[in-house]
Structure to design on (521 residues):
């Protein structure tokens, strides 16, 4: 054939095929090249940082009464710090409420309730927030959050959790104080003083005892041992008849309410007085309880009334010396470590992951 | 035979073209895997926040009745080992996130009676070679110690910690 100008040579086909294969391969790499240029990783880290700052440096909103003492719909913004002045010092009450460790007010739904109150924005971020209590070796996290994917934004913040306070009035404490100085009687009163003006004297909020912000607990144990006549002690019925709360305003003491949820003899549920007590009474006052009192800096007296009897409930009146500080001074819930276990700051770590 | 084959692509040119494209792609891929300024900034920010938090927490007394914070005690007694243990405990505490293999170099600075600054090398987990990409975390600490040739009384020293990842 003399005219073959329209035919392809083998050489050309081989060369063109190699070129085409390499071209397609390089073309297929282009989407991969752009992955490194997308801004999502940076965005996630920034959102994680912002969320971490709000959690550990802000007390949340509403501030007073604090959000952890409010119903879900009243909570505008989460924040775990004790106050704005104490960044990285977290409130135990806020931590418990945030991680749904308490059931008093119900729990928040993941992710919507948390998204509206701490993540913010329209973008449907997924997130995982956890806190690791180093001293207790305990990890709290949002239980419904999904597992972490690749490429999430992350921040960790080191914090301290301000522990709660409590007081234990036991046999040794009672015997070293004038708390059994009553007459031989069947009716006895024991008073506990929460002197708010004295408690407010502590200006460092990291160590302040504030019953309107943090629960306080008073455990009275070994009650039967305070009966003077120990020979009959086993057969005496001790009845906690009432717990009255008094507030002193402008020197006038007024009965403001009763307290109906004591824990009796280490029961896991509360019992409303009057109730028979074997040995122990435990009183846990939530911030909401003190908040309703609106005590401010007014002293609050918690007055426990006991009746003694024999021969079964209600039985016959029985007279003896018993736990009673009517003629001495009330038990003072204050900053004396001998009276009250003081707030202790525990090491912890907050982690926020966003994707 | 084709009489005029000018401009025709042959096998050897095909190979050459393929090689050039692959080499170009390789260079581009390597170039984009270098950290952009934005990425390094985020990592720096994370490490700086962690270091700053660690120093802050070391300077908080667990109890109201404590006479001094752990950090004050460490500087007052020149407890280098205590500082190393405590700082690395805080920074390397493992969580669900990436592992933090963090090294540090700490020093503190104060002024003497002539208002001259003195820098005192304090503790480190590894010597600085100059090649590390470090971030700086600082904390003013009030200590009662005869530092900078002055009699012992409460004074502020600036604790400065350089942090980097292995």
């Amino acid at each position: 054939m003399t005219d073959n100008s329209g035919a392809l040579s083998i050489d050309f086909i081989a060369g063109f095929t190699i070129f085409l294969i390499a071209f397609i391969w390089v073309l297929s790499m282009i989407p991969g090249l752009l992955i490194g240029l997308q801004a999502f990783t940076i965005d996630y880290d920034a959102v994680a940082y912002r969320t971490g700052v709000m959690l550990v440096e802000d007390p949340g909103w509403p501030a007073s009464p604090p959000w952890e003492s409010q119903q879900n719909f009243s909570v505008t913004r989460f924040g775990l710090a004790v106050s704005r002045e104490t960044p990285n010092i977290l409130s135990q009450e806020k931590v418990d409420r945030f991680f749904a460790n308490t059931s008093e007010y119900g729990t928040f739904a993941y992710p919507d309730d948390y998204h509206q109150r701490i993540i913010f924005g329209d973008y449907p971020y997924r997130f995982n927030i956890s806190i690791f209590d180093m001293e207790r070796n305990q990890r709290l996290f949002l239980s419904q959050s999904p597992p972490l994917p690749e490429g999430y934004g992350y921040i960790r913040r080191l914090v301290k959790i301000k522990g709660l306070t409590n007081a234990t009035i036991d046999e040794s404490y009672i015997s070293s104080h004038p708390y059994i100085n009553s007459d031989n009687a069947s009716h006895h009163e024991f008073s506990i003083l929460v002197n708010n003006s004295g408690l407010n004297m502590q200006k460092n909020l990291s160590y302040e005892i504030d019953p309107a912000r943090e629960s306080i607990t008073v455990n009275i144990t070994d009650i039967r041992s305070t009966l003077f006549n120990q020979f009959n002690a086993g057969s005496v019925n001790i009845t906690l008849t009432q717990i009255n709360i008094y507030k002193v305003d402008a020197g006038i003491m007024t009965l403001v309410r009763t307290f109906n949820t004591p824990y009796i003899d280490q029961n896991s549920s509360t019992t409303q007085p009057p109730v028979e007590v074997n040995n122990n009474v435990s009183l846990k006052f939530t911030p909401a309880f003190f908040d309703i009192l609106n005590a401010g800096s007014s002293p609050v007296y918690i007055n426990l009334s006991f009746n003694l009897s024999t021969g079964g409930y209600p039985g016959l009146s029985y007279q003896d010396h018993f736990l009673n500080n009517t003629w001495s001074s009330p038990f003072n819930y204050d900053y004396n470590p001998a009276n009250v276990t003081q707030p202790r700051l525990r090491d912890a770590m907050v982690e926020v992951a966003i994707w | 035979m084709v009489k005029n084959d000018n401009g025709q692509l042959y096998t050897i040119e095909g190979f050459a073209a393929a090689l050039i494209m692959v080499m170009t792609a390789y260079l581009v891929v390597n170039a984009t895997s270098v950290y952009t300024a934005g990425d390094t900034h985020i990592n720096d920010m994370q490490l700086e926040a962690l270091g700053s938090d660690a120093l802050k927490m070391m300077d908080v007394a667990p109890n109201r009745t404590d006479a001094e914070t752990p950090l004050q005690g460490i500087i007052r007694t020149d407890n280098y080992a205590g500082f190393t243990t405590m700082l690395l405990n805080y920074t390397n505490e493992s969580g669900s996130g990436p592992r933090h293999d963090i090294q540090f170099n700490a020093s503190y600075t104060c002024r003497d009676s002539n208002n001259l600054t003195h820098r005192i090398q304090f503790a480190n987990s590894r010597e600085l070679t100059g090649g590390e990409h470090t971030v700086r975390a600082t904390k003013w600490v009030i200590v009662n110690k005869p530092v900078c040739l002055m009699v012992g009384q409460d004074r502020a020293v600036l604790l400065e910690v350089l942090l980097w990842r292995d």
Observations:
- The longest strand of chain A covers residues 236-249.
- Chain A touches chain B through 58 residues (CB under 8 Å).
